[in-house]
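Troubleshooting entry. The earlier prediction with thiamine diphosphate gave an output that would not parse, so I re-checked the input for stray whitespace and re-submitted. Clean input:
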Amino acid sequence: MDLAVVAKEIKPADLLQMYYYLRLTRTLEDRVTALYRQGRIVGGVYTSNGMEAIPVGYASAIERDDIIAPYHRDMGAFLIRGITPGEVVAQYLGKRTGPTRGKDGNVHIGDLKRGIIGFVSHLADNLPIAAGAALAFKIRGESRVVVANTGDGGTSRGDFHEALNFAAVRKLPVVFFCNNNQYAYSTPLSLQMPIKDVVDRAKAYAIPGEIVDGNDVAAVYLAAKRAIGRARAGGGPTFIECKTMRMHGHSEHDSAKYVPRELLEEWKQKDPILKAEQLLRALGYADDAAFHEVEERVKREVEAGVEFGEQSPLPEGPEVLEGVFADDEEVSS
Amino acid sequence: MDLAVVAKEIKPADLLQMYYYLRLTRTLEDRVTALYRQGRIVGGVYTSNGMEAIPVGYASAIERDDIIAPYHRDMGAFLIRGITPGEVVAQYLGKRTGPTRGKDGNVHIGDLKRGIIGFVSHLADNLPIAAGAALAFKIRGESRVVVANTGDGGTSRGDFHEALNFAAVRKLPVVFFCNNNQYAYSTPLSLQMPIKDVVDRAKAYAIPGEIVDGNDVAAVYLAAKRAIGRARAGGGPTFIECKTMRMHGHSEHDSAKYVPRELLEEWKQKDPILKAEQLLRALGYADDAAFHEVEERVKREVEAGVEFGEQSPLPEGPEVLEGVFADDEEVSS
Amino acid sequence: MTTATAGREVTYLEAISEALDEEMTRDERVFIMGEDIGPYGGAFRITEGFQKKYGEWRVLDTPLAESGFVGAAIGAAMMGMRPVVEMQFADFISCAFDQIVEVAGTSYYRWRASVPMVIRAPYGGGVHGGPFHSECPEGWFFHSPGLKLVAPSTPYDAKGLLKAAIRDPNPVIYFEHKFLYRRVKAVLPSEDYIVPIGKGDVKRVGTDISVITYGAMVHLALEAADLLAKDGINLEVVDLRSLIPLDQELIYESVRKTSKAIVLHEDNKTGGIGAEIAARLAEDCFDCLDGPIIRIAPPDTPIPFSAPLEEFFLPKITDVVTAAKKLASY
Amino acid sequence: MTTATAGREVTYLEAISEALDEEMTRDERVFIMGEDIGPYGGAFRITEGFQKKYGEWRVLDTPLAESGFVGAAIGAAMMGMRPVVEMQFADFISCAFDQIVEVAGTSYYRWRASVPMVIRAPYGGGVHGGPFHSECPEGWFFHSPGLKLVAPSTPYDAKGLLKAAIRDPNPVIYFEHKFLYRRVKAVLPSEDYIVPIGKGDVKRVGTDISVITYGAMVHLALEAADLLAKDGINLEVVDLRSLIPLDQELIYESVRKTSKAIVLHEDNKTGGIGAEIAARLAEDCFDCLDGPIIRIAPPDTPIPFSAPLEEFFLPKITDVVTAAKKLASY
Ligand SMILES: Cc1ncc(C[n+]2csc(CCOP(=O)(O)OP(=O)(O)O)c2C)c(N)n1
Ligand SMILES: Cc1ncc(C[n+]2csc(CCOP(=O)(O)OP(=O)(O)O)c2C)c(N)n1
Ligand SMILES: [Mg+2]
Ligand SMILES: [Mg+2]
């Protein structure tokens, strides 16, 4: 990112805060991975390692009343929206204090009070939901915006098409992010779609598209700001493709041998935390001491979270039966 | 169409044959509509009135071993593939001699021996099927091609997206036609999609797209020829948008009041049969006497078909139970 | 609230239309979406005039994309709206299956997001619609946790259940039977009322055999009951009205009284709702049964188009009569 | 044909892999499609090495689009191929629901186009996969005409049923239970064999109570049977193996012998396959039943993630023991 632009467009405190969330995400996810390796977590562990700048960037760009509809590599967005490391660990451990009280696992985190639409594993299912949330805002004349995210893989699903088409026809206040990390599980982009840039998908809907460096948190943030501004002003949806790379396996059991090592080497140089530090240094907003301080802080917070998660109680069997239906006190009103 | 091009690219006999099928389609569908009005047919009657040139054009362009995956306004294609007017009437009347022996109705006609994939009402479901048929040809190294058709409405469905994407990734020998008749039932294009030309959908798949005058059978035919040739040569799919207008209601119960009368007036001047006659006259291939002869011929054929349909037996109740599963003689092989 | 048609006889179809209209007036959060429901008023004209009255943003014509607009309804519901979506025919609900069962059905259970939406599904045969305009898809959703299902058989229930469905904080699939649209009529109360979800209704009190059914088949059972009465066999007709939650108590009460049960529906037999009812009776009311539990339902085929085939396929009055006579002999 | 592993003990997972491999060798028309099945060998590594052996056009990695690739498989099957598609997890089959039930299930019935395809669906719980990596979707398809469904419980059946499914001229959904992948082993015959679709298997002969079940629950029933034997209660364990067509004769035969039935499955209770079996027994074997038909199945909720919840949700050995003891007292 051009330093002058960043200096002009992003407040130092905001950029520092993004840096903090990048670090918090990395540290938390590394810690969760360690728990997984110790056999403490069962099931899938999907991390955003190498891609943290995308959720941190877009979630930093929204306003309090806006809504996010994330997917499975958006830890930074959960954290910014107020999900605590403790809740994340509790969720992974199936504890009652997790956002789904043990009912669901890993990053299936939703909480409308904190403006987060919970997602299902079925990829791209979150996109029509996001469009519908935006429709609600439009119908009510509220100036709220929805930001949704999908992987490159998810864009091949029919629900992607139906959601973007509907959002575009109705000019809904929703911004579609795409985390293009070049793979869907083991499948490279070339076997997923006939185009090089996922953003070309947006042409089918006459939706303005943009490609940004997904490893540059400032770039993601500014692109999000622009698109959110347009959406809020009634300009309809935007599609933002964030070029990035998945640095871990698909899930932590996957060694990702199918990814060429050189590709990983190349992208290691573009690590989003590294990039953010370079930027902060160049702008004179922070130095090594400051980075170290953040490091220490997030470590403490993550450890406190692990402790919270571990000490939280598991749910009890009969809780299975609770909460299939919302209660219908409303019906008699 | 440029006369010189037509003269050079289309054999007179072929063009005359297309004219015959345009007339046969029109006369047959008009007759079916009359039967419907008399209460002889129950259920939906979907005609291609005003759009006959599209199925006639593409089905005239394929080779014997090619396959079509039509939708509900492709009567001309059924006829060219060898479905007789009698079978069509029998199908509408629920007779045992119809292609589905009374099991299914109206234009749900399929027959692999005649290279027709039967479709379900669920629009766009035929598109992944078409891609899959093309995949079979590709795997086996056969030089056969599949031509599929959809309405403008059907392009909003997820299956459209998944089919075109897959076909493009794998460069499958399939040609996608779109009958853009400006409405999906009562819904105008502007509420279906944010783009003016449906062909823009193809950009998402880097599929070559073309717009043709869907009321000009020669234009449709030549576009189909080109696309089929490319598909056969390994060049992958093409998307062809045929601009046209639905001149009847969605189904025959629908008076289509929602369509501006001027629009219908305008398109009446562009009637595909009228256009074909102008072309044939200008090329000197046929005159009024010839047209009259075709008219008489198709009338006779349609009447014979109606008689066949009416005199055919209805199926008997217990036939319901037959044919849920194909028999499994194969299994022991 | 008094309705426009107070005192006048209305059809089942009009009852649906009235319920929608009144709820849209009563509650700003209610809006409707679907194919051709705007200026056209819907394939069955249930929303005729609605767009004029409520505007383009409360009566939305959608692209032809069931998964997309059901998903959008879910999202809007999560944001506090009360969407009612129309399937043009229930048959097309298969296109939205994933959103309904995976998202709508599980969100409250997993993360406490209630999804107060209604899917209107015009379903059922007897209208010569063929395999894709006559389906009974309720069996699939009966086996999908987190969804409520209702299926009225009368104008009164049609209106009251749709209102209850719209006011319910959960996703409700409202199965409206196309065959009944213009065939059943009734004078409805002039004041606002609901029919509570989860409560069945005994449509005919009897003593000898319980016929447990719903939708269009309720009328078939009532006709059979009239015939059988002449033979001294006295049927009780239990109309489930709600499929989920099922009014198990009402079913058990009836069968405890009659000791004999016929379960009747129009959906395919295998794995249908009748199987569940029979299974519950076989488990919980075993000691009170004086004969086998007979299910009457179509065979396991798609519903065919041709008249003689469709007639063979659908349950008939004679099926009920035969089954009742068989049971009476136990 | 002799298999690579003749004489060696293979897991359920390896049995599936072998069946696929042998059928691909035996029949050129067989090809496989799915997400990550190529170089990666599939999420569960069932197709490891297949792409090397059979090439890129018989082992196709697809875009992430279940409806599209299931539809493509249907089209290829219509053209005479024998596609086998893999759902990465059975849970995602909801995304392809429409193509499966409306197109695959009805094409032969309507216009005589046979659709010889197989959908492999890794399903089931007990693996802490949470709501979307543990589903049992068989109940939906059990209620969809035109599909065959199989659900093996042993390596022998897994191999033989997959081969039969591939050779069958109809669409077959093959439910392979993830919990069993590496937990059950057997030495398989060295010669080619199939397990015929539509035939159940008595996995344990008994006299007192029939337990009718399939998939992973077969092993639960067998363990319960061992325990109960000590109390002098002798269970017969009927493994359905095929869900459609159901081996009704075998079920009836067993229950006629024992006069008592427990139906056990892992899919949600309401509207599950157990309901159908109980309903058939309550209708056709009413006179031979000496006690209620007891169903054991999870409650009507999504399958939860957390260990104590999942444990509560899934049927347990003690559930079978309790039910058997109750029945024994009749
Ligand atoms: C509909 C559906 N099919 C299959 C899967 C299994 N699956 C989980 S993640 C994944 C790959 C996702 O790729 P992408 O969308 O690019 O996201 P990424 O993991 O690369 O961030 C697959 C195939 C799924 N979750 N949903
Ligand atoms: C998935 C699905 N939803 C709804 C319908 C009901 N329906 C039948 S035809 C039609 C409009 C089709 O429009 P288009 O694709 O443009 O074809 P046209 O009839 O204009 O040729 C609709 C909504 C359907 N057949 N399939
Ligand atoms: Mg990816
Ligand atoms: Mg159209």
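This one parsed fine. The longest helix of chain B spans residues 12-37.
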